[in-house]
Specification:
Largest sheet: 4 strands, antiparallel
Number of strands: 10
Radius of gyration: 23 Å
Number of domains: 2
Order of helices and strands: HEEHEHEEHEEEEEHHHHH
Length: about 350
């Protein structure tokens, strides 16, 4: 049930992303032909009698798309037909391209605003056990939620950074944790598993609920969104440069598993994770890579600066190759997650 709920929620995030493109395209006078969640053969399909727009859900739920008249520059009347994407000013085309990612950013902000107003879990830097992954070494060793780790192999620790750092440095080695549970101390032996070059035992950082007044909640939600973007960029840069081993790419299967596991920690934790996923969708689509919204935005920026459009053959070739490479990367990551965990 958790997995089904996670898949449904991720589908909603994608639907809202595509709705951003959809709404702004119609607002700028472009003709929308199709709104699809998922790809290939539609399992559900409906055509609006009023607008002629086809709404559908594809059999493969990996993303979605909004088909706008003239986005394909090789359409016969792409540069002449009323309502065609290609006939609109550059700023209108840019608005349509950016509307999808912006919709995800605004959704994340709105969710965090609601959580901060009613109570949201915030990470705390304590050597205390937060969520435990079922079947992981921590679970097998008997660790419990809120266990406080006082010592790691006889050395006193007090912060999550110290606990996580020591675990990362000891993959596949027996370690001793002195913990405090309900006022009593005990020693627990656990062996961190090796994953992506570091040691992990399947625990998450502890959190505490934070509730803020409306005006502070709005500011805190925006600050959380921007700090998440900044931290992700820094982590990604470290991973690309080889300086960080704590980052690894996650595909659809991994995302669904993480989303499903957070449901066990309560609705607030799950919604906080969903807001994080929405920010990740914003960032992913804003990368200046072919086939992504950010890549199309770069071409439009070139048009604004140079006052001439990118050659349509170059545009089509770059985005087609980019889409194939992106799909291939997702398939490789998915294969790895299914067969190698």
């Amino acid at each position: 049930m958790n997995i089904l709920i996670a898949i449904l929620v991720i589908g909603i995030l994608i639907a809202i992303h595509e709705a951003g493109h959809f709404w702004v395209a119609r607002w700028t006078g472009m003709k929308v032909l199709r709104y699809s969640i998922g790809f290939l053969h539609p399992i559900i399909k409906w055509t609006s009698k009023k607008t002629g727009i086809v709404y559908q859900i594809g059999i493969i739920p990996l993303g979605g798309f909004v088909q706008i008249k003239g986005v394909n520059p090789f359409e016969e009347d792409a540069y002449t037909a009323p309502g065609s994407y290609q006939t609109k000013a550059a700023w209108k085309r840019m608005a349509v391209i950016l509307a999808g990612p912006v919709a995800n950013f605004l959704l994340a902000w709105a969710m965090l605003f609601g959580l901060y107003s009613s109570g949201v879990p915030e990470s705390v830097n304590e050597s205390r056990v937060g969520q435990i992954v079922k079947g992981a070494p921590a679970d097998a060793a008997g660790l419990k939620l809120n266990d406080r780790v006082l010592e790691f192999n006889g050395v006193k620790i007090s912060t999550w950074d110290e606990l996580a750092g020591n675990l990362h440095e000891n993959p596949e080695k027996d370690v001793s944790l002195l913990i405090e549970r309900d006022g009593e101390q005990m020693t627990v032996k656990v062996t961190p598993m090796l994953k992506n070059g570091i040691g992990l035992i399947g625990i998450h950082q502890p959190t505490t609920d934070v509730r803020l007044p409306i005006h502070e909640a709005a500011h805190a939600a925006l600050a959380k969104c921007t700090s998440t973007v900044s931290l992700t960029v820094t982590s990604l840069a470290g991973w690309i440069s080889g300086k960080s081993r704590d980052v690894s790419p996650v595909g659809p299967v991994g995302i669904v598993k993480m989303a499903a596991s957070t449901l066990d920690s309560g609705l607030a934790h799950f919604l906080a994770f969903v807001s994080y996923l929405s920010i990740m969708l914003f960032m992913f689509n804003m990368f200046p890579l072919p086939a992504l919204d950010g890549g199309r935005g770069v071409f439009l920026l070139y048009e604004v600066i140079s006052r001439r459009r990118v050659n349509k053959k170059v545009d089509a070739a770059v985005n087609t190759v980019g889409f194939v490479l992106l799909l291939g990367m997702i398939m490789v990551i998915t294969f790895k997650e299914i067969f190698f965990g």
